[in-house]
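STRUCTURE:
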């Protein structure tokens, strides 16, 4: 059968209409994806917010949980005449407030579209119930249920972090979030946002051409249930966290405690810190907190990189042993300091000469000036740059000068100077070991965070290795990153660490030891005091310790700004935390007296701060 040109054209047109018909049938009858598109003005999607996961301490105590709150939302395009006076009475607001909001939405109607906009945040249950009883009088208004954070334990504000409403910058970086959503901004809330947040759900309502609500679309067949966030078990000991914050009241500085055998962070205190009572309504208190001259939002445990002071002698001693320029029996003299070529490094009065163990116990500055110069002037290296690079490699193997890789947000790497640093300061070829002698006692261009110091102490407690510090427990359902389970060995052989450990033990119990104040009944302590020089006021008080000496359970670093000698404030605070953790209570007598002195101590007047301009 022969088809003419006309018949062929008609056949093609018919086929096209058949294909289009099938396609339209599929879209309109079989495929509801277009109908259910959130951009379809016939649909109103009401977000169902999930409960955020709880945050627990290492023993299962709840640190953060939730309570129900309500937000009053408005869909401006669907609002008709309503009883403004009644609405104001229910929520205790002024009529002008409502008028201003609607004027703004009208002005930005293209941007607002059919979206629901927040009118009031965190309305009370009483207000919500009064509104619900009369909701038919307020077309276009609805109350959305969500959860807010509450804090059963008054501790750990900086560690926990806060949750707040996302802004445009956050949404741009996190496409799954929309205006009105909340997310963790600091601390654990930020670090584990993905696990804590859960998954939003939604209820779909159908609207007529006038924008009026005609009920749930297909009786809720296509609604999506919200999925609650997952709970997180931290490594934090809530009791020790609370106790440590009491000890640090009215002081500026930080305390970090680590379990050496795992790298788990037991406590992390930045003082002054954010009070947990302010976290749930951070927007309300944000200005007050941000204008506080002591900067409570600044997490000193990982963001304050300062000279370590005399605790760094432990590192130089270990490098000297490894390099063979020092033995445990090496003796050096000290006559209230070290003097050479016009350079003088002072020291306190103590017996002389002394060996390595005694130098740690008595914290002799002169001893470590000799040690550093022996390391850097070692004839097996061709020049100072080569020996210094060797020294720096050892130092960084302890984790200094870089971010440790913890799960604490905003961690800083600190600073270990480089050859370039000293070429710039002194000129290439114009510096030698004596030029950088301050490194021998943890001063000069060194900068490390309290987390670095706690990690150093854990490394010595383990006799040569550390686990990257972390604050979330390993869980079969949510295993931690494998990097937290890996041992990181330093470049110093493990055989040398017992000599330093013995020196730290003698610092607590030996004649002339600088850490006697940290003695705990029934606990064998190892400690090292430090006094970090401060050109802007009183020196900083530093102390690192671990206990027991064998099979250590806790390693602590305390850094008290403007606290003076290490034994004055840092050692008492760190040792009380160790005692509370291991013994559960503070022994009566001198230890209780020490606890009272620490809790009553106020050092804020020693810290120079600049009042922030409003």
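SEQUENCE:
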């Amino acid at each position: 059968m022969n088809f003419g040109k006309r018949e062929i054209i008609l056949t093609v047109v018919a086929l096209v209409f058949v294909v289009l018909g099938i396609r339209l049938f599929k879209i309109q009858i079989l495929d509801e994806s277009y109908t259910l598109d959130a951009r379809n003005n016939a649909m109103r999607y009401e977000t169902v917010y999930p409960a955020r996961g709880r945050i627990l301490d290492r023993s299962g105590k709840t640190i953060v949980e939730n309570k129900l709150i309500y937000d009053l939302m408005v869909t401006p395009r669907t609002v008709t005449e309503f009883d403004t006076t009644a609405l104001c009475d229910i929520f205790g607001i002024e009529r002008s407030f409502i008028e201003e909001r609607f004027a703004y939405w009208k002005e930005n109607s293209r941007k607002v579209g059919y979206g629901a906009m927040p009118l009031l945040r965190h309305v009370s249950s009483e207000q919500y119930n009064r509104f619900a009883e009369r909701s038919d009088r307020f077309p276009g208004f609805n109350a959305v249920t969500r959860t807010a954070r509450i804090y059963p334990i008054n501790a750990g504000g900086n560690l926990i972090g806060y949750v707040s409403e996302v802004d445009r910058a956050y949404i741009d970086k996190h496409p799954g979030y929309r205006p009105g959503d909340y997310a963790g901004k600091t601390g654990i809330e930020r670090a584990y946002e993905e696990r804590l947040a859960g998954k939003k759900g939604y209820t779909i309502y159908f609207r007529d051409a006038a924008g009026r609500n005609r009920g749930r679309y297909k009786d809720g067949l296509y609604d999506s249930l919200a999925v609650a966030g997952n709970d997180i078990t931290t490594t934090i000991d809530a009791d020790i966290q609370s106790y440590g914050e009491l000890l640090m009241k009215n002081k500026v500085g930080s305390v970090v405690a680590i379990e050496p055998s795992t790298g788990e962070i037991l406590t992390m205190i930045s003082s002054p810190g954010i009070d947990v009572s302010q976290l749930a309504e951070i927007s309300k208190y944000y200005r007050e907190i941000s204008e506080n001259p002591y900067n409570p939002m600044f997490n000193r445990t990982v963001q304050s990189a300062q000279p370590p002071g005399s605790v760094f002698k432990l590192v130089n001693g270990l490098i000297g042993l490894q390099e063979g320029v020092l033995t445990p029996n090496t003796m050096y003299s000290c006559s209230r300091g070290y003097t050479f070529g016009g350079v003088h490094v002072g020291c306190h009065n103590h017996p002389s000469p002394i060996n390595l163990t005694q130098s740690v116990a008595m914290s002799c500055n002169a001893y470590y000036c000799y040690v550093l110069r022996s390391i850097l002037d070692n004839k097996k290296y061709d020049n100072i740059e080569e020996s210094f690079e060797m020294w720096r490699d050892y130092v960084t193997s302890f984790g200094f000068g870089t971010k440790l890789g913890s799960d604490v947000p905003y961690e800083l790497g600190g600073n270990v100077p480089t050859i370039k640093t000293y070429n710039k300061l002194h000129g290439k070829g114009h510096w030698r070991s004596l030029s950088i002698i301050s490194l021998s006692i943890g001063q000069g261009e060194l900068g490390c965070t309290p987390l670095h110091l706690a990690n150093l102490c854990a490394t010595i407690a383990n006799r040569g290795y550390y686990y990257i510090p972390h604050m979330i427990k390993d869980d079969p359902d949510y295993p931690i990153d494998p990097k937290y389970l890996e041992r990181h060995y330093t470049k110093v052989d493990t055989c040398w660490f017992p000599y330093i450990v013995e020196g730290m033990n003698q610092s607590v119990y030996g004649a002339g030891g600088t850490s006697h104040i940290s003695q705990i009944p029934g606990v064998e302590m190892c400690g090292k005091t430090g006094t970090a020089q401060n050109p802007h006021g009183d020196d900083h008080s530093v102390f690192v310790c671990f206990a027991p000496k064998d099979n250590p359970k806790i390693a602590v670093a305390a850094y008290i700004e403007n606290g003076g000698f290490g034994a004055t404030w840092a050692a008492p605070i760190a040792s009380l935390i160790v005692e509370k953790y291991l013994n559960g209570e503070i022994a009566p007598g001198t230890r209780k007296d020490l606890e009272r002195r620490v809790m009553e101590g106020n050092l804020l007047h020693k810290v120079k701060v600049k009042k922030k301009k409003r």
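REMARK: The chain has 21 helices and 19 strands.
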